[in-house]
Amino acid sequence: MAKHVAVLMGGWSAERQVSLASGKACADALEAEGYRVTRIDVGRDLAARLAEVRPDVVFNALHGPYGEDGTVQGMLEIMGLPYTHSGVLASALAMHKEKSRMVFKAAGIPIAEGKVVHRLRAAESHVLPPPYVIKPEAQGSSVGVFIVREDQEHPPQELYAEDWAYGDHVLVERYVPGKELTCAVMGDVALGVIDIVPAQGFYDYDAKYAPGGSIHILPARIKPKIYQEVQKLALRAHQALGCRGVSRADFRYDDRADGVTGLVCLEVNTQPGMTETSLVPEMAAHAGHSFGDLVRWMVEDASCNR
Fold this sequence. Notes:
Its main location: cytoplasm. InterPro entries: ATP-grasp, ATP_grasp_subdomain_1, D-Ala_lig_Van_CS, D_ala_D_ala, Dala_Dala_lig_C, Dala_Dala_lig_N, PreATP-grasp_dom_sf. Belongs to the D-alanine--D-alanine ligase family. GO terms for molecular function: ATP binding; D-alanine-D-alanine ligase activity; metal ion binding. With 306 residues, the chain is α+β, with helices and mostly antiparallel strands. It has three domains: 4-85, Rossmann fold, CATH 3.40.50; 93-112 and 176-270, 2-Layer Sandwich (D-amino Acid Aminotransferase, Chain A, domain 1); 114-174, Dna Ligase, domain 1 (2-Layer Sandwich), CATH 3.30.1490. It is 33% helix and 24% strand. It contains ten helices and twelve strands. It has helices spanning 16-32, 46-53, 71-79, 88-95, 97-106, 119-124, 205-209, 224-241, 279-286, 291-301; strands at residues 4-9, 36-41, 57-60, 114-118, 132-136, 146-148, 169-174, 179-186, 189-198, 214-217, 246-253, 263-269. The strands form three sheets. Strands 10-9-8-11-12 form a five-stranded antiparallel β-sheet. The protein is globular and about 60 Å long.
């Protein structure tokens, strides 16, 4: 009998639409691979839905808070349902930017200078000398991110907004010029390195998801020593956080610097985008894994009690 997989998608975070796209692509691919698939647009009744559906495995295609921060993972642990991607602790650490930075620093993974402050403090005056980046403490997909340039007299006043939806604390981090690099880890293997070139501006939400928003250069056109260092650091970050399954580490590389000194790790995504044109499937394809192969591997790798 075919293994029954429940694909979780949607939810209610700011990344709902991205999750719906990831979930549909993965569910379609799993059906093509011969699995019995139930698609669940996640709401507050998720536990009841899963108890009703009774899947063998849960494919977690959620992005953002509740789906990516250890919350859903904890519920699945209690229910004893094997699930894809990282467990409770790794998911929570990776989603919380300052906590993950502490783990990276302890593991010898380079990070940019930065500090966490209340958003109103960040709006009042420059917390770091420009240029710097302001990003929510626990969000993904570059939502709520601002780059403060050297010629900006004041920080972004949007941080004062009463309808600000991304939490009261933000990470203010030194801006690192140069290349946007990313590397996926699949199990204990670092895949290829992509150089992401936004069509305009920086790698924000639109650059990630809008058609033509960015160009992906794979393999990245960087020196072999830097390429290998990115792979090494991506795997080290994955392991330091305690990730399993698939993750993706993002880096900035100041190519004006000497050797690897210009390289810093920004974050690890434990629930990276999973459409057929997303970064992780692209890196997997470069390593010889079709999209169907990738999602099948993730289902067979699923577990709990971790």
